[in-house]
Design a protein that fits this description.
By secondary structure, this protein is an alpha+beta fold. It has 2 domains: about 70 residues; about 160 residues, Histidine kinase-like ATPase, C-terminal domain (Heat Shock Protein 90, 2-Layer Sandwich), CATH 3.30.565. The strands form 2 sheets. A 5-stranded mixed β-sheet has the order 2-4-5-7-6. α1 packs antiparallel against α2 and α3 crosses α7. The longest helix is centred in the first third of the chain and has 71 residues. The relative contact order is 0.09.
Length: about 300
């Protein structure tokens, strides 16, 4: 519509100017061929440029509109996913509270249900903390409290804090020194004691997202995550190897985009791996993912710069 109107107005203006120019040439008794031929080619060139610009503008508007639609859909998926992440522990808490209210429970049963409720409140807290910290990092307003220590020791203490996940999955931290070969054992000891600089409040969010994904996207009888440390030159690499459904090579770069979900599964909020990448960049590190050799599950690798 806009293109047709623009062409009509341009041709109409061109005809009026052309007639006026012809009258001017005739009144002055000038040679019309010397002027009109040049004028015609100039007009053709201008018309071609105008049409090209209009078509380019229409294409840009169309592409921008498609991207806006895609962003809107991704945001809707995030809202739906995050709402589900909030409603699930709330519904669970409501169920346990109703059980306390309607039944006389023994002390052991009370402790059991209380542990479930604590787990649900921690899950709620983690979800809210993720959003708040992500917003602060993106706005460059996050006030970091940096710590320099062994990442292996930090991993061990973190696993103790999330021991409740033991009911859902096996989380195994491989001892870097567990080698028969003496040279590998020495290298493992060096890796185990290597120091990095990290933010102790953000790093658990990275670990939790990788472990939760391994549990959620898993069809195995028993989800399992192996965590292994490796040293490579001036980097400390932490591998999270799971036995989940895996991530196809075509999706491996896309999964770190904000709101992106593999095959629109509807699981999760779509910001977990984006948060992982954002926090790793905050640590001047990197994150990558690869499909396991047997095509059963994925391996996420976190790379941290070592302290010299």
């Amino acid at each position: 519509m806009a293109l047709g109107v623009s062409l009509f107005l341009y041709i109409h203006s061109y005809l009026k100017v052309n007639n006026a120019f012809r009258e001017f040439v005739e009144k002055r008794n000038l040679n019309p061929d010397a002027f009109l031929e040049t004028q015609t080619w100039v007009m053709i060139l201008i018309l071609s440029l105008l049409v090209t610009l209009i078509i380019a503008g229409v294409v840009l508007i169309f592409v921008y509109y498609q991207k806006m639609i895609q962003l809107y859909r991704m945001q809707q998926n995030f809202i739906n996913g995050f709402t589900h992440e909030l409603k699930t522990p709330i519904a669970s808490l409501r169920l346990f509270l109703d059980t306390f209210d309607k039944h006389d429970l023994s002390r052991d049963q009370q402790k059991k249900y209380l542990s479930y409720m604590i787990r649900d409140t921690e899950r709620l807290s983690d979800n809210v903390t993720q959003i708040l910290n992500l917003a602060r990092i993106e706005d460059k307003k996050y006030e970091a409290t940096w710590q320099e220590s062994s990442l292996y020791d930090f991993l061990l203490s973190w696993r103790e804090k999330i021991s409740y996940l033991g009911a859902d999955a096996d989380i195994i931290i491989i001892d870097p020194e567990a080698h028969q070969d003496e040279s590998l054992k020495i290298e493992g000891e060096r890796c185990k004691n290597s120091m990095i600089r990290f933010e102790p409040n953000l790093l658990p969010l990275v670990f939790m997202n990788l472990v939760n994904n391994a549990i959620i996207y898993n069809n195995s009888a028993r989800p399992q995550v192996e965590i292994r440390l490796k040293c490579h030159r001036n980097l400390l690499k932490v591998e999270f190897k799971d036995n989940g459904v895996g991530i196809p090579p075509s999706e491996q770069k896309k999964v770190f985009k904000k709101f992106y979900q593999v095959k629109k599964s509807g699981k999760g909020s779509g910001i977990g791996l984006y948060l992982v990448q954002t926090v790793m960049k905050f640590h001047k590190g990197q994150v990558s993912v690869a499909e396991n050799e047997n095509k059963k599950g994925s391996t996420f690798t976190l790379s941290f710069p070592l302290i010299n």
